[in-house]
Design goal:
The structure holds two protein chains of two kinds. Chain A is α+β, with helices and mostly antiparallel strands. Helix content of chain A is 48%, strand content 22%. Chain A has a five-stranded mixed beta sheet, sandwiched between helices. A two-stranded antiparallel sheet of chain A has the order 6-7. Chain B has three helices and two strands. The chains are: A alpha+beta, B mainly alpha. The interface between A and B is medium-sized, with 23 and 24 residues.
Chain lengths: 165, 79
């Protein structure tokens, strides 16, 4: 995964996206016990485009030129299937902007904060999101004032309460 | 065997130990957790393939070069 993160940093330096952060199960794993997943979800903030359409095509093309292949919805970068997810709403944009800087075996990276992961899970609302929220609630050191603020601003307080019951 | 609320003392002890182990796993470093995820993938991939899902454990040089989080850790992950 070290080399995978190096490639992501190279893509960011090359301007394919202005910022990235690890999300999904691998971000949750940063804060909790390891959980099974087969892909690495990466949120990206795409560069402003003259077109109103946001497209991942330039990223895929750059990776293709580096010899990486696409498999289903992912690009396999150094043995790790990476799923790129463009920031699709203001919550995800905020999660990207406030992602936690970290290092993986000497390689700098960013991981979505636990509080934003919880909010994104609440918004997405699948069964596996519910399980992830339960795990984060149980095992991560959530900043409760920050979480409350995020949930209030994105109208997720009620869902948070109902999932806690 | 002594019982408490329908649960034997022995079973309570086992459940408490599992809980402690999960907490311990949550405190591993991120690279150690990634190695654990790869171990989980290796265990789960044959089952997924058996259900027709094409999955592949990650290839990560770190897993062959670095020590794991402890002896027999993989066998405790999801007890």
């Amino acid at each position: 995964m070290k080399r995978t993160l190096e490639v992501l940093n190279e893509l960011e330096a090359d301007g394919l996206f202005s910022r990235y952060a690890i999300g999904g199960a691998m971000a949750a794993t940063f804060y909790t016990e390891p959980v099974l997943t087969f892909d690495l979800d990466v949120f990206v903030l795409l560069q402003p485009s003259t077109s109103s359409l946001t497209s991942l095509s330039p990223i895929y093309e750059a990776l293709r030129l580096r010899g990486y292949t696409e498999e289903q919805d992912c690009v396999v970068i150094e043995g790790v299937p990476v799923q790129f997810l463009p920031a699709y709403n203001s919550l995800v944009e905020e999660a990207l902007a406030e992602a936690r800087a970290s290092e993986y075996e000497g390689v700098r990276t960013r991981v979505v904060r636990a509080e934003h992961l919880i909010a994104i899970c609440l918004q997405t609302g699948r069964t596996k999101d519910r399980a992830r929220v339960a795990l984060l609630r149980e095992q991560s050191d959530v900043d409760l004032p920050l979480l409350a603020d995020v949930l209030r601003r994105y109208n997720l307080d009620e869902k948070w309460k109902s999932w806690a019951e | 065997m002594e019982e408490l609320g329908g649960m034997t003392v022995e079973l309570r002890r086992v459940l408490a130990a599992k809980e402690a182990r999960r907490k311990e796993l949550s405190r591993l470093s991120y690279p150690e957790k990634v190695r654990a995820v790869i171990k989980l993938q290796e265990m789960a991939a044959p089952l997924w393939r058996g259900r027709g899902k094409l999955v592949q454990p990650w290839r990560d040089s770190a897993i062959t070069n670095a020590p794991g989080p402890g002896k027999n850790w993989g066998s405790h992950l999801y007890l």
